[in-house]
Amino acid sequence: MRVAGKISSSSSSGPRPTVLLLLGAALIFSLFVVAIQSSFFTTGSRTSDPNREKIRILSDFQSRVQQCVANRGLGMTADIVDHCKLVLKFPPGTNSTWYNAQFKIFEPLEYRYDVCEAILLWEQYRNMTTVLTREYLDVRPDGWLDYAAKRIAQLGADKCYNRSLCEEHLNLILPAKPPFHPRQFKTCAVVGNSGDLLKTEFGQEIDGHDAVFRDNEAPVNEKYARYVGLKRDFRLVVRGAARNMAAILNGSTDEVLIIKSVIHRDFNAMIKELPNPVYLFQGIVLRRGAKGTGMKSIELALSMCDIVDIYGFTVDPGYTEWTRYFSTPRKGHNPLQGRAYYQLLECLGVIRIHSPMRAQRKQDWSDVPSKEIIRSAHAAALRLKMGPSSKQDDLGPFGSCKVWGTVGPDGGGPVSGSPDMSDTRKFSCYNKWEVAPFKSLRREAQEHYFQIGNVSLYKMDGNKLDDLVCVRHTSLT
Ligand SMILES: *[C@@H]1O[C@H](CO)[C@@H](O)[C@H](O)[C@H]1NC(C)=O
Ligand SMILES: *[C@@H]1O[C@H](CO)[C@@H](O)[C@H](O)[C@H]1NC(C)=O
Ligand SMILES: *[C@@H]1O[C@H](CO)[C@@H](O)[C@H](O)[C@H]1NC(C)=O
Ligand SMILES: *[C@@H]1O[C@H](CO)[C@@H](O)[C@H](O)[C@H]1NC(C)=O
Ligand SMILES: *[C@@H]1O[C@H](CO)[C@@H](O)[C@H](O)[C@H]1NC(C)=O
């Protein structure tokens, strides 16, 4: 083929070989070669592309996501770029009055996502442990002296230069092994703090879930019962909320508090005052996607629940200010970015959105891709990512395990609240979850644990779940 190209181009250069003509000939020749090569490669890949079937599965999946966004997105649309990428668009004329201080722009009306990455990430989340434990620090290289120090703000990394000192700082919040398990609950409600909650009466519906997740200073009492319910199980807290926690909890002593980022003096003071179980969150930081504590609550819920229903997130059109159901409006991060991401998550089968503008629609989820469809899209995305040379092992649940550890029956150290634990926590209400016997877990959670070889998966570093710390338990109690 190359030879043919050469002949035809040299003949076209003609009898008068001026510099210009020669240059022209060279140009034509190289175009020829490029054309021949590219046509060679495309026909080659068309006949023997090992990815063809996976791309077809993912393209079908994209069409479903697109249809789902059209049906459920309250005016949002999805433009498909390729088998992985798509762009979510708000309708023209959407009021973008939200200034993004970080990028110094008004909030954009289009958001680009990689659906393949998103589906890999969120399906992985369903198998994760998302609270920090003693076994994690034991197994992780430099777990105590390096990593633990990073989770202790102010109290000081400099005060954590040997293991026993680090332990002192973290003891109050460090269970030996995971207190919660994947698939522990069938249905969960994650309740944000949006002022929208006062436009509906979702209270009873929220209380009908197996577990309810709230965040920070969200009050739960008779005054708001009709809107946000009364059930309380988990609460994700940031430092600013620590000082008010006793008043907010108002005697709710077994509500589990999960600290969002780092332990801090204010938290230590709070822990000493309250009998509630307190743990440290061990999730990831999403750089794109949605910001805020609400997103973290979703991550936490997804690591324990089959179905995650969200209420009180700012997800309807027409926002001009950031509202909370229990206080006056205030400044907040911008809602369009979150709204787009939550809509994507709904159409990936990760969450189900409830809001005033969706309150009247019947609870019909038939346009959200089914579990089987999601599973096959996940498998296709994983094979594409790992490439043709990947071994079967790379594709199993441990393909991302970077560090392995084993914990025996009495490994891992003292259980929170046991006599060898600090006096402060001796009377905490940890026992609702932490020492519940394995056999009392929901059947699906037990089955999952056996299927995954009694292994707990934790994130290692960074914003993805590509590297995991994996801990095998030789006995379950
Ligand atoms: C850790 O450091 C403290 C303070 O310097 C010291 O008292 C303690 O013995 C050390 N512990 C270990 C295990 O080295
Ligand atoms: C605290 O709970 C009690 C009932 O247990 C209730 O009477 C009281 O109003 C609550 N206080 C607040 C501030 O909600
Ligand atoms: C957009 O929002 C601003 C500020 O809230 C408001 O003044 C303006 O009328 C809004 N425009 C439209 C078209 O809704
Ligand atoms: C999650 O766990 C299930 C077993 O319950 C397993 O079949 C599946 O492959 C795991 N998924 C991932 C992404 O690791
Ligand atoms: C998981 O734990 C159960 C109960 O202790 C045990 O029977 C089973 O052999 C364990 N599985 C693995 C793969 O270790």
From TrEMBL:
Q: Name one GO cellular component term.
A: Golgi membrane
Membrane topology per the entry is: Single-pass type II membrane protein
Pfam short name (any one): Glyco_transf_29
Q: Does the keyword Protein biosynthesis apply?
A: no
- GO BP annotation list: pollen germination; pollen tube growth
- UniProt KW Hydrolase keyword: no
MF terms in GO: sialyltransferase activity
Q: Where in the cell is it found?
A: Golgi apparatus membrane
What are the UniProt keywords, alphabetically? Answer: Glycoprotein, Glycosyltransferase, Golgi apparatus, Membrane, Signal-anchor, Transferase, Transmembrane, Transmembrane helix
Looking at the UniProt entry, the stretches that span the membrane are 20-41
Family, similarity comment: Belongs to the glycosyltransferase 29 family.
- Stated name of the protein: Sialyltransferase-like protein 5
